Amino acid sequence: MSTSTEERGPQVVPANEPDGTPIRAYRNPAGGWGSLKAVATILVQQHVAVNGSRVLAHQNKPDGFACVSCSWAKPADPHLFEFCENGAKATAWEITTKRVGADFFADHTLSELRTWTGLELESRGRLTAPMRWDAATDRYVPTTWQHAFAEIAKELQALDPNEAVFYASGRASLETSYMYALLARLYGTNNLPDSSNMCHESTSVGLPKSIGVPVGTVQLEDFAHTDCMLFFGHNTGTNAPRMLHQLQDARKRGVEIITFNPIKERGLVSFANPQSPLEMLSPAQTQISTQYHQLKIGGDAAAIAGLCKYLIEWDDEAQRQHAPRILDAAFIAEHTHGFETFADAMRAMTWDEIEARSQLSRAALADAAHVYAQANAAMVLYGMGITQHRSGVHNVQMLMNLLLLRGNIGRPGAGICPIRGHSNVQGQRTVGITEKPELAPLDKLQELYGFEPPRDKGLSTVEACQGVLDGTVKAFIGLGGNFQVAIPDHHVMDPAWSRLRLSVQIATKLNRSHLLHGEVAYLLPCLGRIEIDRQASGEQWVSVEDSTACVHGSHGLTEPASETLLSEPAIVAGIAQALLPPNPKVDWQAWVDDYGLVREAIERTYPDQFKDFNQRFRQPGGFHRPLAACKREWKTQTGKANFILPDTLDEDADMPSSDPDVLRLMTTRGDNQFNTSVYGLDDRFRGVHGTREVLLMNGEDLTRLGFAEGDAVCISTVSDDGVAREIDGMHVHAFDIPVGCIMGYYPECNRLIPLSHHAKSSLVPASKSIPVRLRKSAATRQVAA
Ligand SMILES: Nc1nc2c(c(=O)[nH]1)N[C@H]1C(S)=C(S)[C@@H](COP(=O)(O)OP(=O)(O)OC[C@H]3O[C@@H](n4cnc5c(=O)[nH]c(N)nc54)[C@H](O)[C@@H]3O)O[C@H]1N2
Ligand SMILES: Nc1nc2c(c(=O)[nH]1)N[C@H]1C(S)=C(S)[C@@H](COP(=O)(O)OP(=O)(O)OC[C@H]3O[C@@H](n4cnc5c(=O)[nH]c(N)nc54)[C@H](O)[C@@H]3O)O[C@H]1N2
Ligand SMILES: [Mo]
């Protein structure tokens, strides 16, 4: 059966001022009236205007739910409305009154649904009942929970446990995540990749070698004590907007904010607080960045090396003059290892090399170094612009080196702040979702649950994809997420999924991953975090860990989208009970009846980290997990904080070609999406309207390569593996971005990223630096002038 366009959509948030030109410069601050308008629009679009406003009042409050959007810290004394425009959109998207029931699937084959866009699929609303794929009709048909659990168990029992992969996107609670990781290990595998493998894994791999912890050391209180922030590769106004409050407060105290980003992101330029009546009624806005350095994509390691070089050389000079030192010599002597080797390498680097690699001038770097050198307490904040490179791990370690030079860790206002993605992605790692056995407390699990845990290394995201391609992975279980779309190389990967024996997707909304399935396939709908979760002992609370290692409680408040839904813990327990032999030490049913018992189990497993978990997790502001590095205790091999010298400073890991016609493509999020969930086609802050099929590039490159504004092009990846990766019909537009750089949207451009193009050792796909060429498109298009 085919579907008319009318039936399918458009269902998008309409463009603000549809005058036919897709790119118009946005001159207003981030936040402000535009923000309130965008919130109102999506509440109406999802038919939740009245209920939505009530729900939003409880977002990120001690008695309410933890936002399902980003992982930014939640203060103990929240604002009246402790949410941002994009958190409100994520809420509206989840509490929508639209439903995808059995009747929907009766009307559409999966082959047909594969021709729909992600937006068309997700905007149909919430999944309501468990479904099984029927090969004869190519449709999802209704099934029962018991049948689904029994059938999934039977399929998994027929496999070697290492042939199955248990993926987790970073949203599920600490309770669910603990149960899910235990399920996989009791079954017999460490194949527990998660979205972090595509995200901050470069942090999780890089920081333990530098400072002995895998997470950031900055806490919310530090924002009140810092006098300098160095911001790398994060689009804060879009992806962690609540942080703009802390940045605004810091600016009012005169704190210097120095940003390194190829693009002038609005939120880091200026902000008007939509919760401040004064700012809304007057043209008041706060300038956020005091210096803005538009470096080349992938130029960070060189830029940071430039800053380090200045500090070290100024310090050399200070010593010669017997003037006050620039470096924190006492800290370096007492707490660090490897300084001399590092300092010599920085002294030896040439400015020509640094300028060429960063595309920043020596003078610009001196400005930044001066401010940093004068700050008593400085912090570094960063996002995907740092981690999603071939040299992602080294980038993280270079940031740490810069902080170590002036002892900027383990004291108020100083430290490293990786801005995490999903609302509980950091917490999932904390409670055992990891493919790296050394990061899981296997001995403790053995002692508590009386089994022999698997000790082999499990598969990360990229390795799981390789396993699907070579046939060694036969089952995929997804706890949330949209794996098949979030990963690279769709041309290569899409056809491989049908070779799986089993695929199981636990989800709130329909997405393309549910349509790329194995011979036996189940789609299991679950409660979202905003919904009331009723179990035998009453309404349940869950918990999440934010970017600052702070654990918070969360309690749903809307009625479930359907009576048939199960909670995520109940689904994990259902599979476990059907799959695993009875174990008197693991009472899955008791855990589902009362999540407080799961928290007790978490505390028994991690007694230092989760002391008095049940007593503390609901207190306003949550509780902090203790981190050794915050106390200047270094759990590294040397027992010190390590200066680590990158081996990639003199070669360009990302770009195999020095041909000027080869450009570097970064794939980023727009203002109207949460990862692969695209709510609408506008990216207001970047001035893009009504389309995501655009490539934003430097005007000089545009002309040099023979294109005119708005031309349709075919973009193709430069690689030597013989696979053609290209997208035809994208439109090029001149944009304020350095020469040689080009920006496109995630996930539309994911097919351009080779699976093998990833960071060394963390294996994070290098989604921010893809070598590409452009040529005139075969297709033509009328473009408004
Ligand atoms: N509303 C909303 N919030 C979200 C998400 C969402 O999709 N929507 N996603 C969540 C998730 S999972 C994550 S991981 C985070 C992601 O949040 P971000 O880390 O902001 O991720 P991106 O949107 O990919 O933007 C990357 C930024 O890095 C810059 N950049 C690109 N290449 C480089 C480079 O080489 N060097 C430097 N210095 N900068 C560079 C880009 O210009 C852009 O500003 O946000 C989380 N929060
Ligand atoms: N090119 C490129 N690729 C990227 C990135 C990039 O910057 N560029 N970023 C990478 C990053 S940082 C990340 S984190 C990954 C994201 O990868 P994923 O985490 O796999 O993807 P999401 O788009 O966040 O998943 C959205 C889906 O999650 C489901 N969902 C939502 N809420 C819930 C819930 O409460 N429970 C359950 N069970 N399911 C739920 C819905 O069905 C929804 O369709 O993508 C990565 N891919
Ligand atoms: Mo992420």
Describe, in short, the structure shown.
This protein has 785 residues and is α/β, with parallel strands linked by helices. It has 30 helices and 31 strands.
Q: Which helices and strands appear, and what pairs or packs with what?
A:
Elements: H1 5-8, E1 30-31, H2 32-45, H3 49-56, H4 85-95, E2 99-100, H5 102-107, H6 110-113, H7 118-122, E3 126-127, E4 131-134, E5 139-142, H8 145-157, E6 164-168, H9 174-187, H10 201-211, E7 228-232, H11 236-239, H12 243-252, E8 256-260, E9 270-272, H13 277-281, E10 286-287, E11 291-293, H14 300-321, H15 329-335, E12 336-337, H16 339-348, H17 351-358, H18 362-374, E13 378-382, H19 384-387, H20 392-405, E14 415-418, H21 425-430, H22 442-449, H23 461-470, E15 475-479, H24 483-486, H25 490-493, E16 502-507, E17 520-525, E18 534-535, E19 538-539, E20 541-545, E21 550-555, H26 568-579, H27 588-593, H28 595-605, H29 613-616, E22 623-624, E23 641-642, E24 663-668, E25 673-674, E26 677-678, E27 694-697, H30 699-704, E28 712-717, E29 726-734, E30 741-745, E31 770-776
Parallel strand pairs: 1-9, 2-3, 6-15, 7-8, 7-13, 8-11, 12-23, 13-14, 15-16, 16-17, 24-30, 27-29
Antiparallel strand pairs: 4-5, 4-17, 9-10, 18-19, 20-21, 21-22, 24-31, 25-26, 27-30, 28-29, 28-31
Helix pairs in contact: 2-3, 2-4, 8-26, 9-26, 9-28, 10-20, 14-17, 14-18, 14-20
One ligand MGD is lined by residues 122, 169, 171-172, 195, 198-199, 384, 388, 421-422, 479-483, 486, 506-509, 511, 526, 528-529, 568, 667, 675-677, 746-747, 749-750, 753, 767.
